[in-house]
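Preliminary data (for renewal application), adenosine-5'-diphosphate complex.
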Amino acid sequence: MGGVKTALRQRHLGLRKQLNAEQVYDLSQKAQQLVMALAVFSAARTVGLYAPHANEVDTELLSSCAQAVGAVVAYPRIVHGTMEFVRFDSECTWQPGKFGILEPSIGAQGVHSCQVEPELFDAVVVPGVAFDSAGNRLGYGKGFYDRFLAQCTPQCVFIGLAYAFQLEDKLPREAHDVALDYVVTDAKITACPASSRI
Ligand code: ADP
Ligand code: MG
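Predicted structure:
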């Protein structure tokens, strides 16, 4: 199983690396427009986003949209090897955290104490290396999102965000893998009833 996942990761990360900045921007706009068309996203009062790295689909538009309607917007950070989410607001700056991924930061010491507990989220937008139409997700191989999403409530909606070429017919799924409710790409929204989380 590990070998299959590793080979898929290498191939998909290679494909994504080939995108230029204009493609990242254009495809990200399309994918985010489709996320905003989802009522479960636009109605969410507390939203988890991610700071894109390595050509991941951008989330800037989703952030502006959620903040404009007064939703709490939170981003991941890694503390002692665990992923947690912290609130992003106008006081925050961005500091590179583990793996060089930007994390919200406040003040000269970069201290940010405003953690948003997993049970509070209405929607979490999830990055990944590849997805399938059953809501399976291939991440970077550390299981951070599997551990985090397992702590959210059954009502919280998990939305995978990706480019169309990141959709696979069927991904390997292990017992600890948490399935998503929707996978949204620049081309389409896939509702994943197989995840049956509600
Ligand atoms: P990813 O989801 O990032 O693609 P994997 O699903 O392959 O990565 O998981 C990576 C590692 O994380 C695996 O060794 C797995 O056992 C571990 N893991 C994932 N979820 C949990 C969990 N809820 N509790 C303990 N270990 C977990
Ligand atoms: Mg996993």
